[in-house]
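DM from R.C. (forwarded with permission)

"hey, sorry to bug you on a friday — could you get me a structure for this? deadline for the figure draft is monday and I only need the backbone to look sensible"
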Amino acid sequence: MSTMYRFMIPPAHLQGLWVGSYFAGLLVNDPSKAVGDSKAVKALQYETVAHSRFCRWRYPTNHRFPAFIFDAVSYWDMLMRDIGLIARRKRSGGLLSEITSPYGTWDYSSVNDEWEERYRKEEVDG
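My reply, with the result:
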């Protein structure tokens, strides 16, 4: 279990794992695999435009300074799924806990260990 500075999960931490996974070719949802597949490229383009448009629709008055905190967990979930980790972080209580309990830093404290374990296992098995 790791300790987090000021009790936060910095977005840069998950982004760093995502970027490292991307350059190592370890992303589960790897955008570079769409190259040469016109259907996959179209889906990738659609998703990219949808995310860009969402920001405009979500923050119509000032998209330069959005209230990102409202979208942070879903963004972290997307990064977690891309790097092959479980996005639902509640370890006890099941779905009810996912719906009714707020997320805290403790829910993300094992992300590094999980990532390392997942890819160390793949390295050994692969």
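R.C.: lifesaver. The first helix runs from residue 11 to 23.
me: no worries. The radius of gyration is 17 Å.
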